[in-house]
Amino acid sequence: MTPTRFAPHILLISVICAAASAEAFDWGSVVNQEKLSQVLQKVAPASAPTVTAAAPSATGLGSLSEQDQVGGLKQALTQGVETAVTSLAKQNGYLGNAAVKIPLPASLQRVEGTMRRFGMGRYADDLTTSMNRAAEAAVPEAKNLLVSAVKNMSVTDAKNILLGSNDAATQYFRQSSEAALAGKFQPIVVHAMQNVSLAQKYDRFAAKGAKLGLVDAKDANLESYVTQKALDGLFVMMAEQEKAIRANPLQAVGSLAQKIFSAIKL
């Protein structure tokens, strides 16, 4: 073979050797053009360095005073409390909203299914309606308790909420005041339950279930159950309001609230 005929082979071997000097090389892997292309890419000149995207602007909350940040958050939270309470306090606020409707306690749901098969579904329906009516009647009393919690919020809590998740404020209320809320809320629920004759309706439900051998009187503490479910529904609605304001700050009532949540989105 002439030197000219050796030239392409010499070039190929030179390229492979160059790759092998840069990193361990598997000679058996060079079996097709695709493998060779990968080798050539490794020994090719380095491409231009990747440009990292600029970090978000340092303005936003940093451009607002601490007083404005806290004041704006309290405006938004007060609005969220009022809107949530108003939406639940009307007729069918709980009963007509699948997200917060209070079902029968789990211990009674098996009873409900059996009673319906025996044509006694109306007793379950009456009991479910009465529990939700009690929650609807009681929930307005939660407004003052929650607004008070907003007013007493610390600066640190406010900042953590502002930079937290979409339901950071709702989680704050759950962690800091749910137990206290439940203690104050339950007597209100009990009173509302009396107004809708819930105990009597439960007794009728239980009496029918007892005939089928399904109900034990200790199976349901309706006072505690309705209280907790009423609070759960309230927190669900508050979380929806909070998420909506974060997503669209212009929904907030009050210029400060609009300003701080717009700043967070920068």
Structure description:
The longest helix is centred in the C-terminal third of the chain and has 28 residues, at 168-195. This protein has helices spanning 3-22, 33-43, 66-89, 106-117, 121-138, 142-151, 155-162, 168-195, 198-211, 222-247, 255-264. It is mainly alpha-helical and 266 residues long. Mean pLDDT is 75; it is low at 1-59. It is elongated and about 70 Å long.
- How many distinct beta strands? 0
Please bin the fraction of helical residues: 55-70%
- List SSEs in N-to-C order: HHHHHHHHHHH
Beta content:
under 5%
Overall residue-averaged pLDDT value: 75
Task: Note the main sheet.
Answer: none
Distance between the termini: 70 Å
Question: What count of helical segments does DSSP give?
Answer: 11
Indicate the low-confidence ranges by residue numbers. Answer: 1-59
**Rg from Cα:** 33 Å
Total domain modules: 2
Shape call: elongated
Secondary-structure-derived class: mainly alpha
Key terms for this structure?
single chain, 266 residues, mainly alpha, disordered N terminus
Quick take:
The chain is an all-alpha fold and 266 residues long.
